[in-house]
Amino acid sequence: LKVVQEYERAVIFRVGRLLSGGSKGPGIFFVLPCIEGYTKVDLRTVSFDVPPQEILTSDSVTVSVDAVVYYRVCNPTISVANVENAHHATRLLAQTTLRNILGTKSMSEILTDRESISKAMQSMLDEATIHWGIKVERVEIKDVRLPKQLQRAMAAEAEASREARAKVLAAEGEHNASKALKEAADIIHTSPAALQLRYLQTLNQIASEKNSTIVFPLPVDFLSSFMK
């Protein structure tokens, strides 16, 4: 008399042959002594880390990538009868699949397109492990490690790009400011009273700063007589 938990199943062999009717459980089941043997199979989801893999990308850059895989046993009978160790086989297949998929990608695709890579890896693993009674539920790329020299080169490239954009923005600002100043000068030139008001506004700003600057007002008309 044997008992298996809610999340377990028992695959029974009678005189070396697989017992018909599939796996037993959960609950109580009978095993004939000396004639039948059984193997417990856990149906809960299992997660494992794929060790970091040194991969040469399609653009000849060496990166180190690791991932995490979530899977469960969906068919206890097949997982026992069709493969010696379904869990170990799934782990080894995950490593080779990760290398095969990332070997066809460029470095930029690995860094920016992790979601599609994870889905492609999950699809390939699920297609292969379904014959072992394994269902791959999820695959996630954990970390992508770049060589130190490449990191410094990418940082320098990004800094140079930011500096170039800053210079372009500054030049555009100077260009727009010069246009605005030219328009203001044309307006003031057509109206002498506007220039006098601007002069008085400047004096007001200087006086409000509470500094020791001494201002001697000089009429603009007086200067214009010398310019003639």
UniProtKB/TrEMBL annotation:
Keyword tags: Membrane
Subcellular location: Membrane
Pfam families the UniProt entry points to: Band_7
Cellular-component GO terms for this entry: plasma membrane
The keyword Membrane is assigned to this record: yes
Domain of life: Eukaryota
InterPro entries linked: Band-7_stomatin-like (IPR043202), Band_7 (IPR001107), Band_7/SPFH_dom_sf (IPR036013), Band_7/stomatin-like_CS (IPR018080), Stomatin_HflK_fam (IPR001972)
Residue span, Band domain: 1-158
Protein's UniProt keywords contain Translocase: no
PANTHER family, sorted: BAND 7 PROTEIN-RELATED (PTHR10264), PODOCIN (PTHR10264:SF127)
Family: Belongs to the band 7/mec-2 family.
Protein name as catalogued: Band 7 domain-containing protein
Organismal lineage: Eukaryota, Metazoa, Spiralia, Lophotrochozoa, Mollusca
